[in-house]
Write the structure tokens for this entry.
Amino acid sequence: MLRVRTYYDFASTLCYVAHRVFGELAPELEKLGVALDWAPLDLAGLLGWPRGVEVLPARLANAERVAAEHGIAVAPLRLWPDSRDADAAALILARGPQAAAFRERVFSAVFEERRTLDAPGTLDAIARDLGVTFEPHRLERARDELAFRTQVAAEEDVTGVPTLMLDQFPFGGIQSRETTLLVVERWVRRRQAGALAHG
């Protein structure tokens, strides 16, 4: 199974859309022998955006357009929340049995239930829903790791989320389902051809 690092941020409406779209594509990706490794990063830190401020109208319009193109019903977040604790918590659970459930629970809480991601108690309530706890010292260490991983993403020329890392090449944004599968399939073929050439 080929694994593709998939950068995301819980604050991003486009990442919620990608979460839904890539979920629908999971059977096709599995047929290609591809699994997504969801990797949180701090988009505000990556791009130098302020937290807790209104999202620019052009960005809201873009998120609405992309969601509509993919048939995903969602109202974009109008204030950019501080997602670092939620992203850090995802790092703590990464690759464990509850990673996917946590990602689903956070996205649904924020974009379907319209809960405020960085409001006091939101992360604790989500953790309780899943029967997990995040001790403050572990969250603090994970936030440091999140900052480091965000810097690594910047060095990989990641300029937004969602982004699929196809080896050293970032494939950013949300394309049509057909385009996404075509790009990934071509990448798989290149990987397979390279393996045969070196085998």
